[in-house]
Automatic annotation (TrEMBL):
It holds the Pfam family MFS_1. Its main location: membrane. GO terms for molecular function: transmembrane transporter activity. The chain crosses the membrane at residues 12-31, 51-71, 83-102, 108-129, 150-183, 215-233, 254-273, 293-317, 338-362, 374-392. PROSITE patterns: MFS. This is MFS transporter. It comes from Bifidobacterium imperatoris. GO terms for cellular component: plasma membrane.
Amino acid sequence: MSSTTKKDVNSLSVILPMLSISLFLTSYSVVNGVIPQLGRALNVDNTAAELLSTTPSLTALATLLISPALARFFGLKKVIGAGLFLVGITAFVPMFATNFAVVMAARVLFGMGLGLYNSLAITLIQMLYSGNRRATLLGIRGATENLGQAIMTALVSVFVLIAGWQGAFIVYLFAFPVLIWFWFQVPDVHLDKSGSSDMEAEENVNIYPEQTSPILGAFCVCAALYMVFFNAINVRFAEIAQKILNDPHHDSSVIISVGILFAVVAGFVYGFLEKKFGDNTYYIGMGVYFLGSLLVSLAGSSYVVLVIGFFLFNFPGPILGPFLCNRIPKYAKKSSQAFWSTMIILSFHVGVFVSPLAMRAVTMITGSTDPAAPFPWFTAGFAIMIAVVLAWQLTHKKNAQPALA
């Protein structure tokens, strides 16, 4: 549904509900703390119970791939609204069901709901805003994902104390007030060639190219590669820490939680970095990644160096993600905006999937059982990614347009 009343998209009454839909996008894992209780209550082993956490991230891919086509046919607002509705409605089933198959079916639909609007939450900002405002909002949107995960994880612990394991799913009911808020405040945007939107601020209108540039394919490769490297530290950090401390029972959850806060901060400062450094924001993000990977590689027996490297790893993701998405309106025609947002999000998922395979490949090549063995290779990978983009820029200096802007 698209309101007939023009809306000022620069007002907080539009911006806040538009950002709030991203609170749920990484919330599939907030039930991790009650996995043992889920297994006992549903009479399944721990491995099966863990699938209730991981399955939504996989089923999200199915609707993620078709969401651009749906958005072109129905408009962004209707598809985003449908996704939020699925997130909220599937929360009811686990609250009352005692059958594992029924709960799993609800989690499958939950993931499909997230996939319906994952990339569209980015596309909406890309099409309603331009320039520094767009860059800032893309960064804050990324921070909102991490903030939502932190808030919902805290709420789950409270609801579980009150209602048992079923309480873990209560947090998803907040999707309904967010849906109502979004529906009545945010204007619709259409992806047809002529396009239409209910926005009022003409200075926010983007000028799209007639043809899509192949550079967007390179953006997708970049997104996948840096997620391969980034996901590696999240998977291996606890194991490396236990090895350094010689304590197989060491709990790294506090350090990992602090890492999430670094990601939140990075999302909020991305707009400033984009405004101040423009294309060079890429080098800032990749440079921090390189330094973090280098520190992990050289940590040896130093836990402090490892932790610093881990924190540095968490900072650039909310910078590089919005950096790439912020360039889509310049290089993709209007009708392809949602498609390329989806391709970059899909590239992130591909990187996460490939990451353990890349680490296993390094182990096979080196023959080392050290959990930190892949990171010198990944450090070299970051250096190559920086060098390739720099060489591309230098060889295209004659172009009137900046290489990445």
